[in-house]
Structure prediction request, 269 residues.
Amino acid sequence: MEASDLQDVRYATDGPVATITLDRPDARNAYSDAMVRSLVAAFDLAQTDHEIRAIVLTGAGKAFSAGGDLKAMRDRSGMFAGDAAALRRRYIAGIQQIPRRIARCDKPIIAAVNGAAIGAGLDLACMCDIRVAAAGAKLGSTFVKVGLVPGDGGAYFLARTIGFARALELVLTGRVLTAEEGLAIGLVHRVVPADEVVAAAHSTAREIAALPPIAVSLTKQAAYRSWGASLEQALELAATYQGVSQTTSDHQAAVAALLSRTQATYEGR
Prediction:
């Protein structure tokens, strides 16, 4: 799928940074079937473009994402249609493809949480590596309030982000936090004025994109694959990735630049 074929999602590049924008502002960027397919395709575009070294994910309009579409829930249409067996199949083949695709992305993803991130919207933000939130933005895992569970795997991602005990309290109560409260518990990394959130995310993306890309990619993979692994497994993985990175020309360029106090340019090899 090309960028021009995407529906309810926009994809743009600026140098080494790709920006993926959820684009259903009239529905507060709630998921549609087309958005799910296009979001997966947009990450494919970023992953396969050698020039892209970091990704910014944000929402059009005033919300990051309202998660599930309440009207579709009411009408039992789209991703909410069918009996229990059909719904299970649709989740696995549909919205759960998003966390699977993001998990395979070895380029850093920065969420610019420009407004409310509710339900599956918060889950999507937690799937990203770094979260920059607009001051006052509302954040909540609110599935229980509409009689649902986090069907996209959100309980897992929230627990990985803020720890099991805090995540359990939030998913069981459906309590909504402000961005500032989220910052206090590590749910977001930074809170900035609303009109600066996308620029702040891009600044972080460019900071990362200026570093040796193979080292960045392997460091991200090591962090995620070591989470939940045994010490021996983590050490073995670290040794393997270090062996790879230490033989790259970018490593040699970085060392030479530090010794000569100059600025290196990295080629990803």
User: Anything to note?
Assistant: The beta strands are 9-14, 17-22, 54-59, 63-65, 109-113, 116-118, 130-134, 138-140, 176-178, 190-192.
